[in-house]
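Why does residue order matter? Because the sequence determines the fold. Keep that principle in mind as you read this record.
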Amino acid sequence: MTNPTEAEVITAIREVFGEGAAKLDDRSGILVPVDMWLRVATYLCKDRGFNYLGDLTAIDYKDHFEILYRIISLEKNQSLLIRVESTDREHPEAPSVITIWRGADFMEREVYDLMGIDFLGRSPLRRIFLWEGFEGYPLRKDFSL
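Structure:
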């Protein structure tokens, strides 16, 4: 799989959405602000050809959550890692990408079920692994039995 450099994609995103729309830091992937994610995701799918969501997961860093998206261009045989931060520990949220990548449905439900991250703009989230009424989110660092 050949990949465009992250710098090339960041440059393209910044040309369309401005300087604050994407950046690199000391970790891999492209960091996109949560409030710009839906517009950037639409652009990456429609204009850059990343038409497949390969994976969606989240990481708890104690002071914030990061939602990670592995997006793929099947036509170009390319992939990108996109990272989106949610800094609200009590009610973490991000926009749903279900209207862009239909396969996000079960992946968003999994992240909600295990991490408690709400995805806005979609039908109400229901647990997918754990039963309704289960208390807490078992993959959070502050979860205790």
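The chain has a mean pLDDT of 92.
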